[in-house]
Amino acid sequence: MSKPWKRRRRLFAVVGLLFVLSVTGAGGTGAAAQSTHSSIVISTRKVGKLGTILVDSKGLTLYMFVPDKRKRVTCVSTCAAIWPPVKLPAHATIVAKGEAKQKLLGSDRDPAGGRVVTYHGWPLYTYIGDRKPGQATGQALNLNGGLWYVLAPSGAVVHTRIVVG
Asked: Average of pLDDT values for 111-129?
């Protein structure tokens, strides 16, 4: 074999190996490697007149969507772009912190693929209008086909309306 062909062969072998490693997540810190040992944290935080409510690991407020009826995820497509669901990666666990109750945590099939974290049967969502911990600008909004509310650690829906601005 000529030298250029041997070099190409080695190059293809290296590229092939890198591709396999990237797809499987082996030997790196890619998403596949991280999701196998990750956990999704659902915690609590006191937020103004709403009291103690559920938040994600970044302290962002979590919401429920009335049309879900504690049965299934109904916020998809454009709705899910505005109200991103709390996704549960494969092999990840859900952990309750603060006043959140582990026994109320679960997951539901997402029509868009994968699973969404639930609390007392309600699929959980964040809101793109909340930019920092402690904000709840999505509370009691009637957007994307229904009302949005925060949840108390008991699993009760908090209907308190707040003035934003």
From this structure: 97
CA distance 50 to 74: 25
Rg (CA), the chain: 21
Q: What angle do CA 49, 52, 58 make, to 5 degrees?
A: 110
Alpha carbons 147 and 70: distance in angstroms, whole number:
14
- Angstrom distances, CA of residue 37 to CA of 33, 78, 89: 8, 30, 10
Instruction: Quickly list DSSP for 43-112.
Output: EEEEEGGGEEEEE-TT--B-EEEGGGTTT-----THHHHHS-B-EE-TT-EEEE-TT--GGGEEEEE-TT
Distance in angstroms (rounded) separating the CA atoms of residues 27 and 95: 27
8 A C-beta contact, residue 152 and residue 158: yes
How close are the terminal C-alpha atoms of the chain, in Å? 74
Between CA 4 and CA 17 the distance in angstroms is 20
pLDDT at 162: 82
Every domain of the chain and the residues it spans: 3-33, 39-158
| pTM score | 0.77
Percent of the chain with pLDDT over 90: 75
